[in-house]
Amino acid sequence: MTAGLAAATVAAADLSGRGGPGFLSPTGAEVAFVLIGLVVLGSALLVVTTSQIVHAALWLVVTLGGLAAEYLLLTAEFIAWVQVLIYIGAVVVLLLFGLMLTRAPIGRSTELDSLKRWPAVLVAVGATATLLTVVVDAFHSAYLDLGKTDDGSARVTGESLFRVWVLPFEVLSVLLLAALIGAIVLSRGRADADGKGR
Amino acid sequence: MNPANYLYLAALLFTVGAAGVLLRRNAIVVFMCVELMLNATNLAFVTFARMHGNYDGQVIAFFTMVVAAAEVVVGLSIIIAIFRSRRTASVDDANLMKW
Amino acid sequence: MSQRLAELAATTDLAADPVGFASDPWWLILFKAVLVFAFCVVMTLFAIWWERKVVAWMQMRIGPKHVGPQGLLQSLADGVKLAFKEDIIVKAADKPVYILAPVVSMVPAFMAFAVIPMGGQVSMFGHQTHLQLTDLPVGVLYILATASVGIYGIVLAGWSSGSTYPLLGSLRSTAQMISYEVAMGLSFAGVFLYSGSMSTSTIVGQQGDTWFAVLLPVSFIIYIVAMVGETNRAPFDLPEAEGELVGGFHTEYSSLKFALFFLAEYVNMVVVSSLATTLFLGGYRAPWPITAVWDGANSGWWTLLWYFLKVQLFLFLFIWLRGTLPRLRYDQFMRLGWKVLIPTSLVWLMLIATVRAMKNEGYDYRGIVLGIAGAIIAILVLSVVWDMFRGTDDEEEKAKAAQPPPGAPGAAEPFDPMAGGFPVPPLPGQELPPVPRRAVRRAEPVGAMVGNGNGTGSADDESATDATDKEV
After folding, report:
1. Between residues 85 and 104 of chain A, which touch chain B (CB distance below 8 Å)?
2. pTM of this prediction?
């Protein structure tokens, strides 16, 4: 995670877009993409295969941090830091919280994997094949000019959000409120059933 | 640079997540795999935003993150409610729609 | 972006410096990074010494005084001693995570310092440069992000120790930091609305006339409370409550790993203090009376002095709080966060947004101020009236409680030592159950003890032993 974040900071320092050419040359950006992409894929595989539950959560943090670095490479700076803030800072911490409340053991857990391994692999291979075919078919001739600095800062994202996407944004706030109330109801219902709150 | 590279990464990540959802039994780990899939779509959205030079993709990625956060809150409270009544967080054991 | 920054800064003094951050050569950036690192470590050593000194003075003691002048080198000596201690790795621990945790808690603390403006433009080795490592357009968001990564150090330390107290401490700290981060973020939002930027240097630039602490007093106060909660310092140091949890998340740590946690805590204190300085107290700018009489106060290396003094002010506040306030109970702490800080900051944010929108629409500034002041006074008056009526209600209830009607729950309600799931003291009118006392410790002749039912003492003792038997 530290490595991913360090890379993210370096990239942030480079790509915060100060007019002139970025710190990373186009080739540099491609190399960074490949390296970070390998880290992301590798840690994602570990999330799915490791037999220690809490380690799975930690590998998920590495994956998400790597993705934040990829967003920085795509000059989506605001999204990148929101990714760190929401996913790494809140979602995975909550997941860890849940793991600890459900007594995550130290060490390997047997029975973490389902026995239906072959259908899973089959579905995975099928999905990969389909998605990759679609991508190859649709985008084999597209080109991304990495030299052109594109502004992905808070200002433009905010303008787009509050000019074009206001209604979805407001609906989203209602959703969040519903989730908040739902979580409270779910955790209080049990306490009432127990008789005295715990 | 060909933006398809980012999309390949997104596709692979999505597959890994999908395989994880099918493979894992612990409900919280299944949740993590769902997060992987959501992130893969986010990466695709941000790539498209960059390709087309408008910010709608980024905004939708932002929305996805917020929805994911709400989903995790409710999901975790459900999982913990199930854990309290059944002493297990395995998805295979929660097969009865009974409290 | 640089264009936009320049536009934003054009109204302020920042426009005076045409030199951007991008023009720094790589060796200067490296040098500044090392300088920031050294600053953090030295500040930690200094803050520990200062804390011990100030708390000692507050408690009429002397504090450390043997190592170095006035004991200044005491914390350095302690650090060296810590490093030479035996490094214990607990058998039940998850080893990689156990080793990783202190590092994870320390690195983000240092990383957050990268965007703190410590001074204005200075000349360093013949280069004009800012006393700030780098400037991001979303700098404050970056600090929030690194702070949230720092939580992992504590969570993982507690879990990987494979022991109960650390786990409890880390669960507490997770809940605590997540809830107080919300209030913290909301207090930042007010600053963003006023400064129109998330970049730390621009925010400092916008405070040329008035500090945001004056413009946004509610945000400032909420941030002060949230920053104490976020750094796990007294009175919010529940995750490491010595009396309850031994040492909290770092109970099983020793030697250098423990030192890293210590370092992280103090660096975090310096970071949140610097952030408070930057966002609310005008950053590295000299306070008003000085600028009135001395024009050069805001130039060159002098800015570093103002920054340093302001940070020291906040550090002193931390120490003062620690020396004064008792630790909150967990539910009180959570109630403060969720039921006071967050709703207050939400309402305050609405108010700020309204004022900004009205100003943008071209309403008269004084009209707005008068309107808001009127609204606040009206609310205050209402609340005072409400309090008076509620006060009479309370008195009526007290009167009722004084003469409880038969069968009604009142003072006769038996004392429940675990009411609401927490150990609580008895309410007025309730009586403590008989405390199981030790039988001896009384200067009575041996004969009296042997004697049959001699005096009230032994009768008490009998009932007490009965009570303990029943409890067992």
Report:
1. 86-87, 90-92, 94-95, 97-99, 101-102
2. 0.75
